[in-house]
Amino acid sequence: TSTRDSIDDMGTLKVKAKHNNANFDLTFGEDATMQDLCEKIVQLTGVSIPGQKLICCGKQLPKDLTVSLKEAGFTTGVGSRIMILGKKFDPEHDTDYKRIVEVENKAISMEKKIEEVSAEVDGVCKGQIDKNIYAEAKSMQKRVKGMNEDLQKQLEILDSFSLNEDQPECKTKRKAVATKLNQAMDKNDVILEKLNQWIKQGLA
User: Fold this and answer.
1) Nearest 5°: phi and psi at 201?
2) Cα 200 off chain centre by
């Protein structure tokens, strides 16, 4: 090793990382943080940051991403060895994720029903009220209220899932599905209000 290389080595942090059977040689600048290390591990292994457990010299490294690698115990020169514990996220084998997708599929199915009912309601509300149309409108009113109850039930199912810190993908998916359900409920409320107003006016 040349003198130049030796000087360069003094300013870098070398890390030998092991995950399952794979080994990685990593190099960081002196001012690198735990975030830099964890993000690199995500790129190399697919294990999300919350799902990572990093062991160095028999101790778990800090979870605080703002901590510098030097503060975490890494030194320049020879380098440090770490073991990465944690699995790459696999939606096919994650039970919680699959249950959330089941709720999402129900939400998509209900969205289609809402679109159909919306078109029906528009058709009914264009006509003059009479006994037959009034009965149809009341029947639709009941259907729309029932759909809202079903949507609320799906939201409650989502809320019942107990997700851990190392399940960020599940949390993100749950949030997206909850948003979809809330949007569907908002559309439903608009349809219901339209029906209510039309029935009210017709009976006035």
Assistant:
1) -65, -40
2) 42
CA angle (108, 112, 116) in 5-degree steps: 165
Residues 6 or more apart whose CB falls under 8 angstroms from that of 170 comprise 94, 96, 97, 100, 161, 163
In the chain, the N- to C-terminal Cα span, in Å, equals: 95
Q: How far apart are CA 146 and CA 37, in angstroms?
A: 51
**Three-state SS sequence of 150-201:** HHHHHHHHHHHCCCCCCCHHHHHHHHHHHHHHHHHHHHHHHHHHHHHHHHHH
Report the alpha-carbon distance of residue 154 to residue 114 in Å, rounded. Answer: 15
Q: Which amino acid type is present at position 98?
A: K
User: Is residue 1 scored above 50 in pLDDT?
Assistant: no
- Residue-wise pLDDT for 164-175, tens only, equals 877 888 888 999
CA dihedral 100, 106, 109, 111 (to 10 degrees): -80
Please name the residue that has the structure tokens 């975490």: 72
Condensed to tens digits (0 to 9), the pLDDT of residues 70-92 reads: 888 888 777 789 999 988 877 77
Q: What is the DSSP string of 77-133?
A: SS-EEEEEE-----GGG-HHHHHHHHHHHHHHHHHHHHHHHHHHHHHHHHSPP-HHH
